[in-house]
Design a protein that fits this description.
Elements lengths: L1 H17 L17 H4 L4 E3 L5 E3 L18 E13 L4 E12 L6 E6 L3 E7 L2 E2 L2 E3 L8 E6 L6 E7 L7 E4 L11 E4 L19 E9 L5 E4 L12 E11 L5 E4 L2 E4 L4 E5 L1 H10 L3 H12 L7 E5 L8 E2 L4 E4 L12 H8 L7 E3 L5 H20 L1 H21 L22 H18 L1 H14 L3 E3 L1 H10 L1 H4 L6 H9 L16 H11 L15 H9 L7 H11 L7 H13 L6 H10 L3 H11 L3 H14 L5 H7 L5
Parallel strand pairs: 3-13, 18-19, 19-21, 22-23
Antiparallel strand pairs: 1-2, 3-4, 4-10, 5-9, 6-7, 6-10, 8-9, 11-12, 12-16, 13-15, 14-16, 17-18, 20-21
Helix pairs in contact: 4-5, 4-6, 5-6, 6-7, 6-8, 7-8, 7-14, 8-9, 14-16, 16-18, 17-19, 18-20
Length: about 650
């Protein structure tokens, strides 16, 4: 009855919205939210208990995940001086913030913090009054600072917590080299506030300088200017001259070496990983050149990669000048390098043109995912582009089947929620599919010209979904009025699911994979008789990901004997196979499953396995054992994302 009630209510809401006199208003309608711009009122909202309650309109310019007051006092520059103490697992030091008063009489600066010990606040050497407010679970604690009259800088002396949500301290045993400790930060979405007191909102762009003090045997690198030939003396200086949002501030410290991959590209990694990483990602310079030729100059001087230990919770993080990369994509055959294309593409869509709030994440990730496919096509050809687009579309379909309608909307309502909840295939693949539809309607060359002008128009700015729509109104919707429709665009952005008639990626390379799978499932051929010599990793993933949910023990054993899936060294193939093994309780794969869960911290790979294991008592017990062993090496974000499955 619950689903019937909710769907019926949704139908009523859609009918009401259709009667609204607002011309071309966004159709931001789900069972959980109503767009007040559409209905122009406080209307009925259905919460998760199916109770009826009023909802307020979203202020699209407001960042609901920051306490900061940049409309009154804006932070424009940070000067960090931090020491990394691996014994107590703390960053200890200070940040001097430069401010600009937006209102003439503004005398209070509000910064975001999370689990920071604020030791003192000074200006021109004199103590300044401050008040650290009570903490909120999702937002941390607001730091209120009284600004002296005329003061343009204040300095906050502070220490981080060993359990900072945006930092992970690894023991030597948790690294590739096993000799030295390692520290890395991960600021997105709102975790910069756990290692720097600052205005932690993508609306606020800052330049920064930093002095980082480390043990002398270690090297510090940041999302800033890095000198691979710097003297390793334990004191490192950095400068980021371009203004960036706080979530792109990043630091790593470890036993790192550098290897060049081109004139403007190189890789930092632990010595045992360096050569394999440089070989795997040797096409990075070609990717950079191709993207520049299509979408305009690269704005960040160098593009280097940092290969992190396996506990890194994401595939990659687009920190400017130095993308942080998981080692799980080093497959030995360049089959997973679309991740590098993705992080590189962020140099245009995300780092240069940035979402203003986490509601607008699709402006970062949808554009970047679209660019990723285009870069892969330019470097590796149309077949690779088509295969990866099909796999991405299937990932999108899976999320649409599993997510609530409210979470299928590009311009998502995240009020009252952890902003990390925004990360799914919706902003990535749905956003990219939306752009692909525009491309197909107006022509690729025309759309490329639009993208070039878009990146130029909003260069080094943070924008909202509504500002993007306004730009479409000024440009494409006027230039191609016969091909584009405002209501269709609103449906893509403000309604759940995929609009009817949307593009469906196809790949001829998958036709023979479908035929082989169907013949095997029908019993017409043995697994070891399938001709797979020329299959790519993408075909293997397609082969596995489209198996029926239920397979019997004999079928699983036959597949494993023929293709050695349990022993696969490709982490993506291993993941797909282990998902099948868990769903069907194929115990011969469980030893590998255990080692997989305890050696990899990338959330995309481990979370679906924990979720599937948690569906049975035996599976949950297995998951709990693996999680407890792996937890000390997992990043805090991976821990929080998965601990609910093992409780």
């Amino acid at each position: 009855m619950k689903n019937i009630f909710r769907l019926s209510t949704l139908a009523l809401v859609i009918a009401l919205a259709a009667c609204s006199p607002a011309e071309n208003a966004p159709s931001d309608v789900t069972e959980d939210t109503l767009n007040a711009d559409t209905l122009n009122a406080d209307i009925l909202n259905i919460d998760t208990q199916n109770q009826i309650a009023p909802t307020a309109a979203i202020d699209v310019s407001k960042d609901y995940h920051s306490y900061a007051n940049p409309d009154e006092v804006l932070v424009t520059h940070l000067n960090l001086d931090l020491s990394a103490d691996f014994t107590v697992k703390k960053l200890i030091g200070s940040v001097q913030v430069t401010v600009k008063r937006q209102k003439e009489n503004a005398d209070e600066l509000i910064l975001d913090t999370r689990d920071l010990a604020i030791l003192s606040v000074t200006s021109s050497g004199e103590d300044v009054p401050f008040d650290l407010k009570a903490a909120d679970e999702n937002l941390g604690a607001a730091l209120h600072i009284t600004l002296p009259k005329g003061a343009e800088t204040v300095t906050i002396n502070y220490e981080t917590s060993p359990a900072a949500s945006g930092a992970q301290w690894l023991t030597p045993a948790q690294t590739a080299g096993k000799k030295h400790p390692f520290l890395f930060t991960q600021a997105q979405a709102v975790h910069a506030r756990s290692f720097i007191p600052l205005q932690d909102s993508p609306q606020v762009r800052v330049t920064y300088t930093a002095t980082i003090r480390t043990p002398k045997e270690l090297l510090a690198v940041m999302s800033a200017s890095n000198d691979p030939d710097t003297e390793r003396d334990g004191v490192y200086e950095f400068n980021m001259p371009q203004p960036i949002p706080s979530y792109l501030i990043a630091l790593a410290i470890g036993d790192l070496q550098f290897k060049s991959m081109g004139e403007r590209t190189g890789v930092y990694a632990e010595p045992s990983v360096l050569d394999s990483a440089a070989a795997e990602f040797e096409d990075t310079e070609n990717m950079l050149i191709a993207t520049e030729n299509k979408y305009g100059p690269y704005s960040w001087d160098r593009y280097d990669l940092l290969i992190l230990p396996p506990s890194f919770p994401f595939g990659g993080m687009e920190n400017p000048r130095l993308s942080f990369i998981t080692p799980t994509v080093i497959a030995g055959d360049k089959s997973l390098v679309s991740l590098i294309a993705h992080e590189l593409a962020h140099s245009w869509s995300g780092n240069t043109v940035t979402n203003a709030t986490w509601r607008d994440l699709w402006l970062n990730e949808g554009f970047t995912t679209y660019l990723t496919y285009r870069i892969m096509e330019m470097i590796y050809g149309e077949d690779r582009y088509n295969m990866e687009a099909v796999l991405g579309y299937q990932d999108l379909q899976a999320d649409i089947e599993s997510l609530e309608p409210a979470d299928q909307i590009l311009a998502i309502d995240l009020r009252g929620r952890n902003p990390d909840d925004v990360f799914s295939n919706i902003p990535y693949e749905k956003g990219a599919l939306f752009l692909r539809e525009i491309e197909q309607k107006i022509g690729r060359d025309n759309f490329d010209r639009f993208l070039l002008s878009y990146f130029e128009r909003f260069s080094f700015k943070s924008i909202t979904t509504d500002e993007f729509i306004a730009y479409l109104d000024e440009t494409l919707l006027q230039q191609y009025a016969d091909k584009l429709d405002k209501s269709r665009i609103n449906a893509w952005i403000f309604e759940p699911g995929i609009p009817e008639g949307a593009p469906v990626p196809e790949s001829d390379a998958f036709v023979k994979v479908d035929n082989s799978r169907e013949q095997w499932l029908a019993g017409n051929t043995r697994a070891n008789a399938i001709e797979t010599k020329d299959w790519t990793v993408h075909q293997w993933l397609y082969f596995l990901n489209n198996m029926p949910e239920r397979l019997d023990e004999r079928q699983l054993a036959e597949l494993d004997a023929a293709f050695s899936f349990t022993k696969s060294k490709n982490n993506e193939i291993a993941h797909s196979w282990l998902m099948i093994a868990v769903t069907n309780e194929y115990k011969p794969a469980y030893e590998r499953l255990y080692s997989y869960l305890t050696s990899i911290g990338r959330n995309k790979l481990v979370k679906p396995l924990y979720r599937e294991l948690s569906k049975t008592p035996d599976g949950k017990a297995f998951a709990k054992k693996a999680f407890e062993e792996a937890k000390p090496g997992y990043h805090p974000l991976t821990v929080s994302a998965n601990e609910g499955y093992v409780e």
